[in-house]
Structures are given as structure tokens and as C-alpha cells.
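Explain this fold:

***
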Amino acid sequence: MRNRRYVIAIWAAVVLLLLIAACAAGSERFEAKPAGFWAGLWHGLICWITFIIGLFTDSVRMYEINNTGNWYDFGFILGALIALSSGWGSSCKKKRKKRAEEKEWEEIAEKVEEKIRKGIKNWVDEKEDKDMDWNEIGKKIEEKIKRELKKWAEE
């Protein structure tokens, strides 16, 4: 039953491709009246299909030679951009989501940084010897961080 669905889907895809290829550039339809903007838009939309089919046959072309000029070119480029853009809208949504996540992480980082600064300042101020060497302070901070991380990991 499942294999039959795949066979039907494949045949439907082949028929759809043939129907689309029938509307491809290079047909006799445009000998009497040159292809305009809408034909260019359509040829741009199906350009990836006609390119693949055009590799195997000489009768299907990607671009209609007999066209009205700039308007056909504009339609073709617009259609090709739409067809080949690979979901521009979804990538914008991903970027917006990524920006929101980055903003959230930046806010968290600022809060953590502020807490660390306050903690270090309080910790340094607690010491009697305020003229301590920075290397010694660094070692003590490192030891304290290790202790806190170990305590946190054991919880």
C-alpha cells in the first residue's frame, strides 16, 4: 500500500513537470506575438525546471528568444529571483528570532557581568590588605570560582 503511494506521487510529479515544461520558453506560441512581462515572469518561475529539462532536450529552452525586450527581461529576472530565493521570508524570520535570542543573551551577560563586578569589588574590599598584588587577587578569584563551580555542580 505504501509503495503504491510513492509510485502515484512519482507519476504525479512527472505529469506536473511535463505540464510545466509545456509552458516553457522556446515554444511556437511566441512566434506570432512576442513574449511579454507575464510570460517572462512565468519563465523565470519555472527556470530551474526548464534548465534541467533543457539539459536533455533541444526543444525546451529556459529563456524565450522572441520577446518584447526589457519587460520580458524584468519579468524573467523577477520570476527567477522568486524561484531561486530559497525562502527569503523564512530566513528573515530566522534572523529576527536569532536577533531576539542574541538580545536576550546580551541582557543575561550584562546582568552576570554586573554581579561579578559587584562580587569582586565586595570581595576585594573585605580584605585587610588593600595593596595586594593583582596576580594574587587573580589566583584567589580563580580559587573561589573553582570552589563555587564545584559546589554548584554537586547540587
